[in-house]
């Protein structure tokens, strides 16, 4: 069975509203002969005469009367769908957005983001879900609305991204640790026992390579898969951990942070979404909220690190 020409819905809507081939032709800016051919196609498609002669005019058949309201609503909905987006009414917006992040983002930015959204759009709810991998499929199929993270070779090439902030790695120990006083030299740093954070279970990292270039080696006491777990261990022991500074701000409360005595690469945390959401006004507003919260926290954050 062939797919019907959906353009016929507009023609049928006007014909049923006007009840006249001539008036429908003028309204659609068609010639009377073109309008008559369109009516013939509609009769063939629906299997019903739709409009029949009654004296000098045309009257609708029962099938036409049945279709008139339905067709009118369908055309209105189609026109609304193709119309440019109207001004977003945030106070009336009722929607749940799913944001996929790694641990640390919610702890540091979640409260401010939720407060901002509650003030502007009280009907909006955020669902934060954990980012266990870099699979782009949830963004493509709409399961995830937004994602934060570091762009990599495995990031979908069609995805949109915008930098939120740049981050650097710092050293962290518990309050009262021996590294809390005095200059932190390479030797003092390497002499301690360390926590390595690796989601892939690697035995060494960038810091170990930098120490090796100085003919030094640190002792890695344990390997964990998250910054929050690493900081919890460091808080309760004499272990040393290296974590991103801004991403772990609130997780490091009441701990001693210091500038690493070895060079490490900075990372850029980005906001990632699928291009099909580019023009969605509510999604665009949410992206702006996330960017603003991260920018404001960057402007207001004062970092007092010990320099080795």
Mean pLDDT: 87
So what's the overall shape? rod-shaped
Radius of gyration: 32 Å
Strand order of the largest sheet: 4-3-5-12-6
By DSSP (H or I, 4+ residues per run), the number of helices equals 10
Gap between N and C termini, in Å? 77 Å
Largest sheet: 5 strands, mixed
Instruction: Point out poorly predicted stretches.
Output: none
How does this structure look, described?
The protein has 308 residues and is of the alpha/beta class. Helices cover 39% and strands 22% of the residues. Helix 2 packs across helix 3 (32-46). It has ten helices and twelve strands. It has helices at residues 7-18, 21-28, 32-46, 62-82, 105-120, 137-141, 186-191, 206-213, 227-235, 281-300, and strands at residues 51-54, 57-60, 95-101, 124-130, 146-149, 160-167, 169-174, 193-197, 219-224, 240-244, 255-258, 267-273.
Essential attributes:
about 20% strand, five-stranded mixed sheet, alpha/beta, about 300 residues
Topology:
Blueprint: H1 7-18, H2 21-28, H3 32-46, E1 51-54, E2 57-60, H4 62-82, E3 95-101, H5 105-120, E4 124-130, H6 137-141, E5 146-149, E6 160-167, E7 169-174, H7 186-191, E8 193-197, H8 206-213, E9 219-224, H9 227-235, E10 240-244, E11 255-258, E12 267-273, H10 281-300
Parallel strand pairs: 3-4, 3-5, 8-9, 8-10
Antiparallel strand pairs: 1-2, 5-12, 6-12, 7-10, 7-11
């Amino acid at each position: 069975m062939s797919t019907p020409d959906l353009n016929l819905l507009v023609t049928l809507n006007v014909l049923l509203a006007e009840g006249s081939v001539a008036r429908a032709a003028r309204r659609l800016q068609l010639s009377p002969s073109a309008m008559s051919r369109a009516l013939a196609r509609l009769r063939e498609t629906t299997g019903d005469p739709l409009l029949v002669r009654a004296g000098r005019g045309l009257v609708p058949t029962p099938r036409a009367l049945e279709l008139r309201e339905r067709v009118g609503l369908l055309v209105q909905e189609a026109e609304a769908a193709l119309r440019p987006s109207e001004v977003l009414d945030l106070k009336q917006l009722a929607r749940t957005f799913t944001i996929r992040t790694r641990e640390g983002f919610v702890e540091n930015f979640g409260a401010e983001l939720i407060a901002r959204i509650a003030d502007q759009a009280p009907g909006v709810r955020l669902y934060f879900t954990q980012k266990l991998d870099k699979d782009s499929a949830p963004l493509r199929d709409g399961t995830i609305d937004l994602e934060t993270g570091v762009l990599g070779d495995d990031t979908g090439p069609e995805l949109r991204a915008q930098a939120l902030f740049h981050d650097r790695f710092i050293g962290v120990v518990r309050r009262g640790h021996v590294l809390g006083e005095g200059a932190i030299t390479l030797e003092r740093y390497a002499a301690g026992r360390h926590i390595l954070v690796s989601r892939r279970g690697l035995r060494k990292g960038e810091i170990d390579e930098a120490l090796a270039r100085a003919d030094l080696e640190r002792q890695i006491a344990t390997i964990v898969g998250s910054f929050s777990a690493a900081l919890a261990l460091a808080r309760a022991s004499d272990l040393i951990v290296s974590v991103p500074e801004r991403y772990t701000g609130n997780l490091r409360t009441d701990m001693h942070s210091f500038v690493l005595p070895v060079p490490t690469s900075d990372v850029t945390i980005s906001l990632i979404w699928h291009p099909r959401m580019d023009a969605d006004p509510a999604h665009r507003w949410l992206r702006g909220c996330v960017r603003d919260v991260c920018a404001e926290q960057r402007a207001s954050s004062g970092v007092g690190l010990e320099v080795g």
